[in-house]
Amino acid sequence: MNNVVADDLESLVLQERRGGVAFLTLNRPAQYNALSEQMLAALHGTFDALADDASVRVVVLGGAGKAFCAGHDLKQMKANRTTAAD
Fold this sequence. Notes:
By secondary structure, this protein is of the alpha+beta class.
C-alpha cells in the first residue's frame, strides 16, 4: 500500500487514546459517515491493530459531524454492482 492510500485510510478513522481506552471516530461527515469500501478497510485495519495491543481495554466508536453512521455507502454499492450482489 502506498503512503497516499495509507494516509487516506488513516484519515477515515481518527484515533485517540486515553489510558486503556481507544476512541475511534468515523470521519466522513459530509457523507454522514457512510461505510464505503475504504472506510471498512480502515476500520478493519484499526480493529486488527487494537486487538494486538494488550493495553487497550475499551473501544469507543463515534462519528464526526451530524450523524454516527448512515450505514453502507449506497452510491458506491450501486456504482460497483456485480451480478452476485443483484
